[in-house]
Design brief:
By secondary structure, this protein is of the alpha/beta class. The chain has 14 helices and 15 strands. The protein folds into two domains: 95 residues, no CATH class; 322 residues, TIM Barrel. The two termini are 33 Å apart.
Length: 454
């Protein structure tokens, strides 16, 4: 892997690399023949998009297919169940038409839990009896906005739990057409202090478009909105957005404007592996974001094949702290899409977190995890303990639909195979977890399901 010394001086134009253009890149020849077919087969079902910066600067082609960033951005044969892979490969080899390919792909997609539940049913807010599409209000103080112009990314993560946004199935897409709804909703919800603008990736938008969303939030009428967060992977996949893009300076001025209004601006950077912070361009992006008074935080799920290594996390957190990015969350891979390929048992996730956490200084120990954004809330796996002769998993809510549940310890049997909250059984012979009881309880039938969180 090389990091061009002059990559800060020359503005590069962003060019997506997709299923139809990847074969024309110089790196295609470095992909073994059988994996070339796999990319074509799997990308007919699941979204695939990368870019020249990721391919040139972040992937070590001598390590393919084990290279972590290759696993993170190039679809892998194991992401489809063998029978689905075989069906799709057969159609492609036979030269099947678009309609037939599409019908088969859609059938496979609908089996992959495209909307971890609650996201379309329980979290969409209403104003005057009208549902507000593309917004979510799950936790009292935080509202999420999915702006329609931000429903793509500079490159797609193979594990992405929002993959349904990107496959062209409009009936399972989640986006907001207008900022007006958000402003009207916030005006009558003074309890909301945080707005998280997410996607896709809102930083694929031009600054002009982003400004039309952010500036109305800075009005005196919305003084209760104290914190604006931008959920983005651009810091890793296209740091040029903050450095050499034509409107990079304009973007930084918008950040300064938010800070000058007395609000807190947090760029929630999705960094999955330390290599994403190693290039001069990535480090310059961090420096420039911080120079505006905005804060940069780092978060990512724990993903098998990508960062299931405590050393990688410890290095990521240490580098982040040195550059001024605050370690924030290690998430648990969600129960959607090709999760069988990426997920890890909760016990192993906790062991990985602990192993990484104990290698870093107190400044990096702002990080929390492993955390599941599940239907009832954000559940932290606190560890394995022996209580009354039983091996138990210690859990607690960091955030919850019912605020009274927060930071209340509860216990599950330490099942070494469980990968999600719904796989767990209460410890000590209890019939149900405390949050399943009473009128606000979460019915067991939906406990298996995730929900878009922050």
């Amino acid at each position: 892997m090389h990091h061009a010394a002059n990559d800060l001086a020359e503005p590069q134009r962003y060019r997506a690399v997709t299923r139809s253009t990847v074969t024309r890149t110089p790196q295609w020849e470095l992909v073994p023949r059988e994996l070339q077919e796999a990319i074509m087969v799997v990308s007919a079902v699941l979204p695939f998009r990368t870019n020249e910066y990721v391919m040139r600067e972040l992937i070590d082609w001598e390590r393919v297919p084990e290279d972590p960033i290759y696993q993170l951005t190039f679809v892998q044969p194991g992401m489809l169940k063998p029978e689905d892979y075989a069906a799709m490969a057969r159609l492609l080899r036979a030269g099947a038409g678009k309609a037939e390919l599409r019908a088969t792909a859609d059938r496979i997609r609908l089996r992959l839990n495209p909307h971890p539940a609650g996201q379309l049913t329980h979290n969409v807010p209403q104003l005057d009896g009208r549902r507000l599409p593309g917004m979510q209000h799950k936790y009292r103080e935080t509202v999420l906005l999915f702006p329609s112009q931000g429903q793509t990314c500079h490159a797609y993560c193979t594990f992405c739990f929002r993959w349904a946004q990107f496959v062209g199935m409009d009936e399972i897409k989640f986006q907001s057409p207008s900022t007006r709804d958000l402003v009207d909703y916030l005006a009558v919800h003074p309890e909301v202090s945080d707005v998280l603008i997410t996607g896709g990736d809102p930083l694929v938008m031009r600054t002009k478009a982003l400004r039309t969303i952010i500036e109305p939030l800075l009005s005196d009428e919305l003084a209760h909105v104290q914190d604006i967060r931008l959920g983005t992977k651009s810091v890793a996949y296209w740091p040029q957005r903050y450095v050499t893009d034509p409107d990079a300076d304009e973007l930084l001025r918008l950040f300064e404007r938010v800070v000058a209004s007395g609000r807190h601006l947090a760029v929630m950077g999705h960094y999955s592996h330390p290599v994403e912070l190693e290039t001069p361009m990535a480090q310059e992006a961090v420096r420039r974001i911080r120079s505006t008074g905005a804060e940069l935080r780092m978060q990512s799920p724990l993903i098998r094949h990508v960062n299931d290594d405590p050393e990688a996390w410890a290095q990521l957190w240490r580098t982040g702290v040195r550059l001024g990015a605050v370690p924030y969350y290690m998430f648990v891979e969600r129960d959607t899409g090709p999760k069988h390929y990426f997920e890890m048992p909760l016990v192993r996730a906790w062991e990985t977190f602990r192993e990484a956490y104990r290698q870093v200084s107190g400044l990096a120990r702002t990080v929390r995890g492993p955390s599941m954004s599940a239907f009832p809330g954000k559940v932290l796996v606190d560890g394995v303990a022996e209580v009354r002769g039983e091996q138990v998993l210690c859990l607690q809510f960091l955030q919850a639909r019912d605020p009274s549940w927060v930071r209340r310890p509860f216990f599950a049997k330490a099942d070494p195979d469980a990968t999600w909250l719904g796989d767990l059984v209460p410890a000590f012979g209890e019939k149900q977890f405390f949050f399943e009881r009473g009128p606000a309880g979460v019915p067991r039938s939906v406990r298996r399901l995730a929900v878009v969180g922050q």
